[in-house]
Amino acid sequence: MNDLTPDVDDGADIVDSYRGIVCTIRDRRKELGLVTLEIEEIAGLQPGYLSKIEAGMKGLGPLSLDSLLPALGLKFQVVKCPPYPATLRAITDTAPCDVTRRRKVWETLRMTPEERKAKRAVEVAARSEAKAKKLDDEIEARRMRMGPRE
How far are the Cα atoms of 48, 50, 69, 70 from residue 77, in angstroms, in the given order? Predict the structure, then answer.
């Protein structure tokens, strides 16, 4: 492997966030053709717990994770990666979900702090212009409803 590619087992996905872990668990469950109730029973979890985790209504704790991973045939592997942006490029290209968000993050991290500040200023100005236009449109609509002044 070159210095830009993380050292990962073949076929392994790189996950860099809590949501990525949850997506990987959900994708593996679906790949195995099992419903959440079956996995909960195998892992010894309360009925409905995994559904709530996948829906983002409940957090996945270390004890639950220790039960879920073996039930799904998954394991953790800590990977040493080169510093950004190469790491994020590898993560973005192999992440199981939310790729659009990861690409936006990657693009932002490739910017210098000055470029990020300028981008943020442009976004804030665009939002302010949009709000001003909306307010102008509302005022114009009210004038149209009221009719001409006498």
Answer: 28, 22, 12, 13
